[in-house]
Amino acid sequence: MRIGLDAMGGDLGTATVVAGALDAREHLAADDMIVLFGQEDVILKALGGEVPAQIEIVHTTDVIAMDEKPVVALKSKPNSSIAVMTKAQKMGEVDACISAGNTGACVAAAHMLLGRLKGVERPGIAVMAATPGGTVAVCDCGANVAARPQHLYQYGVMTSLYLEAVGGVESPRVGLMSVGEEDSKGNDLVRQTAELLRADDKLNFIGNIEGRDFPKGVCDVIVCDGFVGNIILKLVEGVGSALMKQVAMALISEMPEQTETIIGVGEKFRIQYDFNQYGAQPLLGVNGIWMIAHGATAQHGFVSAIKAARECISHHVNDHIVDHLCGE
Amino acid sequence: MRIGLDAMGGDLGTATVVAGALDAREHLAADDMIVLFGQEDVILKALGGEVPAQIEIVHTTDVIAMDEKPVVALKSKPNSSIAVMTKAQKMGEVDACISAGNTGACVAAAHMLLGRLKGVERPGIAVMAATPGGTVAVCDCGANVAARPQHLYQYGVMTSLYLEAVGGVESPRVGLMSVGEEDSKGNDLVRQTAELLRADDKLNFIGNIEGRDFPKGVCDVIVCDGFVGNIILKLVEGVGSALMKQVAMALISEMPEQTETIIGVGEKFRIQYDFNQYGAQPLLGVNGIWMIAHGATAQHGFVSAIKAARECISHHVNDHIVDHLCGE
């Protein structure tokens, strides 16, 4: 396997990406290769001047910043790491792409250069999230902010197949995010999507869920449009971390002699809820493997990302998706 | 003032509503009256057989359950507490309505029987939420799940005026919930709403916010459609409470000798984040005062609700809304 990794993406810079790539080598098969896309001098410097075993560099000149308009940036910067890496997958030179860079640019590059899988109308990002009730996959989380019922239905199918193949979850429970559990609740998009999900007897659709079900482990997959999914994830991340800080400070001020224990418990929760454990998130529905990582991905997050990309390649998720959607 | 209260609404039953009404009397002016709408025998029993000072009963026969379809229920049950109480406001027999019952039925009754304020296109529910960064008002939280830009713009205006008049917040900061802070991010609804909010120079519009800004106190008002607002609120409630339980259990298992202190700190947070402190939430934009309470409102929540309704009446929020929207 040859895994493409955008060395220019991520809030923490090239040194972090490269350090993650180096650490990830111990999880590779002997003939696997990590291909770093980016400015060669910057990457080489991060590598300490030498290219070690199982690492390759593909030099690219342009860099797409986090706040650039995706489609404009891709067109005006054809030699960006994101564009060149995606073309390399198109040409069969890498088997997967990973980036913690501009999400919109990653989605646009994958969409424009790789195209969609047969039967898929719109790709969606499936994000794994840790909750008190266990891990849940939310799809879509921002690829598509103007979803139609058919798109959401396909997110349910694709994420379910992904969890089954890659996560080993048997018959994943699929919930549709709405404003109440009753079928009559929600907006037109939700009501029409529910009908499509219910009509597919290969899916384990449990019906509508609501916001307060998120942490309860009632389902393995949450289906929603990219606008709602993005808000949900950022909200949970923001509220969880603000609350934990507030609680820790209150506890320490109440029993300062227990500071070390309190910090230790906080650290356990930080690890339990660390998004880096999932590495990168599949952009499901594109004709290839494109994994999008959180902008703030840390060194160990890039290790998880490379492991996740390997899983995606070896489990042939895309074949399962086409089989399901095209009725074979 | 005469405050109407639905004695049949709320998950905890008539006894809780009535107990709240009794407690609320100490916050009333001498000529204020709380008018309880519901089945007289049930209310009388909860009152201990006698109708005390400053309490009145209006007997209604029908009860709308929490899971009934709002419009169907209202039409088939014209003698429900919700319908009769709303008609009483229309006739000037009460100055405000409060219910912890079926939200959809409350919205529909207010909309159909009181109508909209001049200039308002769609009423919205503004919910006060406690966050680590302070109280924020989210509008809409479920009255309107198919919002247009003009509706969202008006939610910004109405909630801002409400906070100014009732909450004493000077020039409230209005944020628009989106998937990124940049103007280009979001869906069509958000982009068009942002233009309307920005064009109103009487508003203190701070621009787009994203999910992770929710707990940070960056704004006083969050504008979103009712689908998103409902998910946000339930999500925050669910995640907050699940996380607090998990943290408390982990701490207690780590230092069982500190159980009492840990429970004490937890209790402080429970009070800080208790939705009952806000009582009930205004349905802004209807031609009257209709306050909707959380289904799980407790006895002290009904006290807050009655106080909130009094504030609404005395601060003439509706006049300010009409003045602003009709350009006077």
Question: Can you tell me about this structure?
Answer:
2 copies of one chain form a homodimer. Chain A is an alpha/beta fold and 328 residues long. The first copy, chain A, folds into 2 domains: 151 residues, Isopropylmalate Dehydrogenase (3-Layer(aba) Sandwich); 155 residues, Isopropylmalate Dehydrogenase (3-Layer(aba) Sandwich). Chain A has 11 helices and 11 strands. The first copy, chain A, has an 11-stranded mixed beta sheet, with helices on both faces. In chain A, helix 2 links the parallel strand 2 and strand 3. In chain A, helix 3 crosses helix 5. The longest helix of chain A is centred in the C-terminal third of the chain and has 29 residues. The first copy, chain A, starts with a strand and ends with a helix. The interface between A and B is large, with 55 and 55 residues.
Radius of gyration of chain A: 20 Å
Pair with the biggest interface: A-B, 55 and 55 residues
First-residue to last-residue Cα separation of chain A: 28 Å
Low-confidence stretches of chain A: none
CATH topology of the largest domain in chain A: Isopropylmalate Dehydrogenase
CATH architecture of the largest domain in chain A: 3-Layer(aba) Sandwich
Number of domains of chain A: 2
Mean pLDDT of chain A: 96
Please summarize the sheet with the most strands of chain A: 11 strands, mixed
| Topology of chain A as a string of helices (H) and strands (E) | EHEHEHHEHEEHEHEEHHEEHH
Summed up, the helix count of chain A is 11
Query: What order do the strands of the largest sheet of chain A run in, or round the barrel if closed?
Result: 3-2-1-4-11-10-5-6-9-7-8
CATH superfamily of the largest domain in chain A: Isopropylmalate Dehydrogenase
Tell me the helix content of chain A.
40-55%
